Amino acid sequence: MDEYTADCRARVAFEVLANRWDSVVVFTLAAHGPMRPAVLRTRIGGISAKVLNDALRRLEYNGLVERRPYQEAPPRVDYELTEAGSALLEPMRMMGAWATRYADAVVDAQERYMARDCRTPRAECQG
């Protein structure tokens, strides 16, 4: 079981998928192809420009999207998935299937935990 120790490569994948908006951006780019940030934001819905920009920077940093600037007036930039970004779709779909099957059990467990001794996951209940 050493593949999940502190310095293992598998942790990279878990860290990449840990941010909820990153996976939404990857799925949206996969479904609709390269697009400008404003169009991407509209397609996703419910995401601020700052949060989208942070997600795009994280994904670019991790090599999952490519930023393509164009020498036009006004300036234009779009983003598209790299090969590594596209390859994430299969494990993301598998995680989605896991969530479909087990989300209710996870939520039930969370509710039982919080109801027991009036505790929240991080701190004691305040009243």
UniProtKB/TrEMBL annotation:
Domain HTH hxlR-type: from-to ranges: 8-107
UniProt keyword terms in alphabetical order: DNA-binding, Transcription, Transcription regulation
Highest taxon listed in the record's lineage: Bacteria
GO molecular-function term, one example from the UniProt record: DNA binding
PANTHER family (alphabetical): TRANSCRIPTIONAL REGULATOR, MARR FAMILY, TRANSCRIPTIONAL REGULATORY PROTEIN
Name of the protein: Helix-turn-helix transcriptional regulator
Organism name: Actinoplanes aureus
